[in-house]
Amino acid sequence: MKRVVLMTGATSDLAKEVISKLVVEGYKVYATSKVKFTPEDKSVSVFSLDVRSWENCKDVIEKIIKREKRIDCLINIAGYTISGPSLSFNEDDFKNLLDINLLGPFRLIKSIYPFMKQQGGGRIINITSLNGLVSLPNFGLYSSSKHALEALGNALYYELYKEKIFVTNLAPGAIEKKGGGLTFSHKPAREKFFLLKFLMPMLSPEKVADSIVNLLQNPNPPPTLVLGSDAKILLALKRFLPGFIWWYLMRYVWEKK
Ligand SMILES: NC(=O)c1ccc[n+]([C@@H]2O[C@H](COP(=O)([O-])OP(=O)(O)OC[C@H]3O[C@@H](n4cnc5c(N)ncnc54)[C@H](OP(=O)(O)O)[C@@H]3O)[C@@H](O)[C@H]2O)c1
Q1: Does the pTM of the predicted model rise above 0.90?
Q2: Cα(105) to centroid of ligand 1, in Å?
């Protein structure tokens, strides 16, 4: 029997890689996005889903259950980044970001939970971010949304473990974009310090997709998995450096022109 996967954010480079790997591994994939999307592989089923709508989340899940009688895995990829001084944004910018990055996964997890419980288990993967573990200047709003998603996912890991519903937050560092990188209002640290480009290369979407597939096949997946040398190096520095050196380092990187 094919394992059934529901995924959001299907138009992103990352999701496209995840879809092709899951198809090769023999999963039945339901890929969803807000805008119309045509998958390369004809075996992939597509639904339009705006994660800001409870109705839409419930409706898509019920349709899949009707067809397949089960959903084994939920992969929450939909989400977006806003960068810039935190106080340059207004309340609506913040509410919209939280609605998609935080409440979107919450709506899907809450709607899918009764079915996973009834079928005796399931897998949930939330794509969080390095910004969900370290708060970086210029990413205050985005970091808030991803810290909150990290917190939610970690609590759910414990709450649902006994029901064999395994919840993992996958926290990648920066991921390469095929059509060019994100545009930022500031000069990224990698451009200020060229050495960082070599020490902390960006992750390829393929690498992140491999980790997602491995997590789905791991009999005992962890609550959080960190990916990428930028994420690993920054987290190690934050953990092991005395606070005042870490704060100085962060201010130095931030203030350097
Ligand atoms: N890029 C990075 O360096 C990086 C690093 C760490 C973590 N992440 C996380 O990885 C995920 C994908 O990032 P990305 O940079 O690849 O993103 P992206 O290319 O900008 O794609 C964002 C995805 O979110 C979907 N989305 C946005 N609003 C939605 C809504 N209201 N309802 C349903 N779907 C919606 C978009 O779908 P439509 O096209 O249909 O609007 C799109 O598929 C995000 O959660 C992001 O936070 C990214």
Answers
A1: yes
A2: 12
